[in-house]
Write a structure and sequence with these properties.
CATH superfamily of one domain: Spore Coat Polysaccharide Biosynthesis Protein SpsA, Chain A
CATH topology of one domain: Spore Coat Polysaccharide Biosynthesis Protein SpsA, Chain A
Low-confidence stretches: none
Distance between the termini: 15 Å
CATH class of one domain: Alpha Beta
Strand content: 5-15%
Number of strands: 8
Helix content: 40-55%
Length: 313
């Protein structure tokens, strides 16, 4: 099989027929043998019925339905386990990724020898303030810490050699860091391709502002622990960081007051003890988050998901 197209989705009933028809057209034009694996992440609309209907007309369409919503990482992990193609393509179901990019993404894997190729949405049709600027900051931090020269780590449109997706495990919210996971698994030839980005045609985005907070915390976690991280850092890391920097800011204020404004009695002021307490609590919460990461990494239940139905698998 030439290609496995892995599509995680949540409440995308309107876009699925059009997206599937577009993919089928590209596959036929290029004479690819293929499968389309759709992972329904606990949708509450008619997405699964649409998948069943589409499969009735094309045996290459396969589906996995989660009993509840687990997140994009869980959906991708199950899709990777099921994929059988020589090259695996991931894309979002919201019609913002173009299937016309698939042949070139496959060619870069098969002919240029890349282990994986990540799409780069150079021109985006998202809100500048709430998505584009935070995305640029997030990608800059990920690029600097991982030493992987990609502009868009979180682009849903990617291509992989089969052995790459069979060698990595994704859970929590680690889908943002698949290039880093691939690099640490020994796959170092990671490429990038400028891909088109289309305005959303149906539905609404499933990600809010909190994904950027969690994204930076995940980055800190994954770089500190080694290879994997999970959700404990999202709670402990956030509150630990806020507490520590609040205490540090107060301590800095007291220090400046003493040495530059000659205000004496620094250690007798209640603010001094509040600053020390906040920094200690912040440090403890942050360390608790990392300990939680280590525990979750070794949990045998970290990638067990309740699957309600399967089609074609």
């Amino acid at each position: 099989m030439d290609l496995s197209i892995v599509i995680p989705l949540y409440n995308e009933e309107e876009s699925l027929p059009e997206l599937t028809a577009w993919i089928e057209k590209v596959m036929q034009e290029n004479n690819f043998s293929y499968e389309i694996i759709m992972i329904d992440d606990g949708s509450i609309d008619e997405s699964w019925k649409i998948i069943e209907h589409l499969r009735a007309g094309n045996a290459g369409i396969k589906g996995i339905k989660f009993q509840r919503n687990y997140g994009k990482s869980a959906a991708l992990n199950e899709g990777f386990k099921a994929a059988q193609g020589d090259v695996i393509i991931t894309m979002d179901a919201d019609m913002q990724d173009s299937p016309d990019e698939i042949p070139e993404l496959r060619r870069m894997i098969m002919e240029e020898g890349f282990d994986m190729v990540s799409g780069w949405k150079k021109k985006r049709y998202d809100n500048t303030l709430t998505k584009n600027i935070p995305s640029k900051l997030f990608n800059a931090a990920a690029r600097r810490s991982s030493k992987i020269k990609l502009h868009d780590f979180n682009c849903g449109l990617k291509s992989y050699k089969k052995k790459v997706v069979k060698s990595i495990e994704i859970y929590g919210e680690m889908h943002r860091y698949i290039p880093i996971l691939a690099k640490w698994a020994g796959f170092r030839k990671i490429g990038e391709k400028v891909v088109g980005h289309r305005a959303r045609k149906y539905g609404v985005t499933k990600f809010g502002w909190e994904r950027f907070v969690n994204g930076f915390l995940d980055l800190a976690s994954i770089m500190f622990v080694g290879k994997f991280g999970k959700r404990p850092m999202h709670f402990f890391g956030l509150w630990g960081t806020l507490s520590f920097f609040a205490g540090f800011a107060i301590f800095l204020y007291l220090t400046i007051s003493k040495f530059f404004f000659d205000i004496t009695g620094m250690t007798q002021r209640p603010l001094f003890f509040f600053a020390i307490l906040a920094m200690i609590i912040g440090t403890q919460l942050f360390l608790a988050g990392f300990i939680g990461e280590l525990i979750s990494r070794n949990s045998p239940e970290r990638n067990n998901y309740l699957i309600e139905k399967k089609e074609g698998l």
